[in-house]
Design brief:
This protein has helices at about 20-35, 40-45, 50-60, 70-90, 100-110, 125-130, 155-160, 175-185, 215-220, and strands at about 5-10, 115, 140, 170-175, 190, 205. The protein is α/β, with parallel strands linked by helices and about 220 residues long. The chain folds into two domains: about 5-15 and about 95-220, HAD superfamily/HAD-like (Rossmann fold, 3-Layer(aba) Sandwich), CATH 3.40.50.1000; about 20-90, DNA polymerase, domain 1, CATH 1.10.150.240. Strands 3-2-1-4-5-6 form a six-stranded parallel β-sheet, with helices on both faces. Helix 6 links the parallel strand 2 and strand 3. Helix 1 crosses helix 4 and helix 3 (about 50-60) packs across helix 4 (about 70-90). The radius of gyration is 17 Å and the shape is globular. Bound molecules: 6-O-phosphono-beta-D-glucopyranose and magnesium ion (MG). 6-O-phosphono-beta-D-glucopyranose binds next to helix 1 and helix 3.
């Protein structure tokens, strides 16, 4: 008998839509404001990481970790979010990455549950702009968890709310921290991005358009 599969749990930024790029641009702008050079390579480490933890990492990168009070850090994080909100204001369903809609349709067609696990405080607004919010059975965002990725809490919470076993879940992620979170929750991990960054995933696709429901299920059953 084949292994039971009950749910798919998606990350949002960088998997469903290209907001990972907007997070990068917004941090780059903020870093420039405070005299820190921030590159796309540096950004890899920030993917999947909460807003305040990301700021701490950027300050450390620039050797400025002791230069700001807690209140000033809150202001800096708020400023980054303002840059980010400007960038995402025109998001529409056309911004859903290729391959995602067909995958969601297959998941639904097979009667599986669908969850979202995003540490972003903007997750619900982005899902609404994409016209996807109502397609998901459960959305777990920053408001529902204590510990961000790589802690497994967010994927465990999604499985719990979906009322499914973690071993019967497949998680999708574009971030190394996210893959760690999925594996920590004892789920099958699908990575989207570079093999090297996502080496702990069970299977990696270089881009979303290559995602294939049939292939993912075959790999899951063979794992
Ligand atoms: C994650 C992104 O989904 O959300 C991170 O990968 C981002 O880059 C984090 O920092 C928090 O997002 P927000 O919208 O709460 O600042
Ligand atoms: Mg992501």
């Amino acid at each position: 008998m084949s292994k039971p599969i009950e749910a798919f749990i998606f990350d949002l930024d960088g998997v469903i839509t290209d907001t990972a790029e907007y997070h990068f641009l917004a941090w780059k702008e903020l870093a420039k404001d405070i005299g820190i050079t921030f590159t796309k390579e540096d950004n890899e480490e920030l993917k999947g990481i909460s807003r305040m933890e990301s700021l701490e990492k950027i300050l450390k990168l620039g050797g400025k970790e002791n230069d700001f009070s807690k209140e000033e850090k809150e202001q800096l994080a708020a400023k980054k979010n303002e840059h980010y909100l400007t960038l995402i204001q025109n998001i529409t369903p056309d911004d859903i990455l290729p391959g995602i809609k067909p995958l969601i349709e297959e998941i639904k067609k097979h009667g599986l549950k669908l969850g979202l696990a995003s540490v972003s405080k903007n997750a619900i607004a982005v899902m609404e702009s994409l016209g996807l919010k109502d397609k998901f059975d459960v959305i777990v965002d920053a408001a529902k968890i204590q510990h961000g990725k790589p802690d497994p809490e967010i994927f465990l919470t999604a499985a719990k709310l979906l009322n499914v076993e973690t071993a019967a879940c497949i998680g999708l992620e574009d971030a190394a921290a996210g893959v760690d979170s999925i594996k920590g929750a004892k789920m099958f991990a699908v990575g989207v991005g570079s093999e090297e960054t996502l080496r702990k995933a069970d299977i990696v696709y270089s881009k979303t358009e290559l995602l294939s429901y049939g292939n993912i299920i075959r790999e899951f059953e063979g794992a």
